Amino acid sequence: MKMDWNKDLSGMNTFRMRVSCRCFVEYGSVEELKAVLADRSFPRPFFPLGGGSNLLFTKDYPGTILHCGMESIDYLGSGRVYADAGVVWDDFCAWCASKGLWGPENLSYIPGEVGASAVQNIGAYGREAGELIESVACVEAGTSNVVVIPAGECGYAYRDSRFKHYWKGRYFVTGVTFRLSEVPKPELDYGHVREAVKEKYGTDDPDLLTPAMIRGVVTDIRKGKLPEVSELGSAGSFFRNPYVDVKTLEAIRNKAQEEGLGIVPSFTIGGDCFKVPAAWLIDKCGWKGKELGGAAVFEKQPLVLVNKSGGASPDEVIALEEEIRASVKAKFGVALEKEVEYV
Questions:
Q1: Less CB within 10 Å around the terminal CB: N or C of the chain?
Q2: Alpha carbon of 99 to those of 103, 110, 136, 206: distances in Å?
Q3: Which residues belong to the active site?
Q4: DSSP states of 37-78 as a string?
């Protein structure tokens, strides 16, 4: 177990916020985690930190940051894979692709760790982690009991799970079991994935594709439109794509027609529900590339807010977020919700 007091967290969050925590602990086993949770000498509250990629530290953290140092991956047979919470997510995607296992390839190059994937229900290009998860292994904070929670009980929804709300602070994820496919199951019908696959490989025939091929295409797409966190601090997609009803979608289309904004992209979710890309709404409000203090909207992808100066404060990021939300609401009548967690 590694422990550090008053630790600087600027290198442990992808937004590069210059904050610290009262205590930092990296545990190397479930038993070590249980010991920390039971030890009253550690300052409360506890907060689990993975790769620090989907959050914004708004101030110094007064309690104990817990990081999983376990990093093993085990093939259980029949497409089932267990991965420790501390495994880097993209390393997990690469491992699965190398074994010919289908499922995570569309989620390649998303920053963070396996444990966070089960909490955030990360998603991209038509796939979500919750669709692949069989169960989540956790330690319960109040009892230090080890529990295994079936995916069906985790309440997975768009960028959401019970771990983010009802179970927040109750469970600490230590590992995830995934149920993947040993037969070809490429998901190509989202965005420009199919087009990119055909351009790169000359075919979109499932029998001629491999998970590694799809992973390569998705990685190229993400690298082309998202900032490298090693070069420019960000938390990835800052806002959720809003779900709207028919009436709201028609109002957005009318506004777009009035102002000559082009066709409004939308995706049917089911019934009277449609998804409209938040990036389109933000872009049409003129935010792409705009700055506020040290924070800015990424010039290639308006869904991403960045620490452009390298020294942006949390208040500057929050102010930028609030101005974007206000302008989208005023122009299109849509209330954006942040995907990033504030700590």
A1: N
A2: 12, 19, 22, 17
A3: 159, 237, 339
A4: HH-TTSPSPEEE-SSS-SEE--S-EEEEEEEE----EEEEET
Structure-block tokens of residue 239: 């806002």
Give the whole-angstrom CA distance, residue 328 versus residue 326: 6
Nearest to 186 by CA among 216, 226, 159: 216
Q: What is the pLDDT of residues 146-190, one digit of tens each?
A: 999 999 999 999 999 999 999 999 999 999 999 999 999 999 998
Q: The tokens of 211 are what?
A: 């998970």
Phi, psi of 336 (to 5 degrees): -70, 145
Sequence-ordered list of residues with C-beta below 8 angstroms from that of 90, at least 6 positions apart, any chain? 108, 109, 110, 111
Residues 6+ apart with CB under 8 A from 105: 93, 96, 97, 186, 211, 212, 214, 215, 218
How many CA atoms does the CB half-sphere of 23 hold within 13 Å?
A: 16
226 — phi, psi (to 5°)? -120, 145
Give yes or no for a contact between 173 and 137, defined as CB atoms under 8 angstroms apart.
yes
- The pTM of the full predicted model, rounded to 2 decimals, is 0.91
List Cβ neighbours of 81 (8 Å cut-off, separation of 6 or more): 73, 74, 75, 96, 101, 177, 178, 180
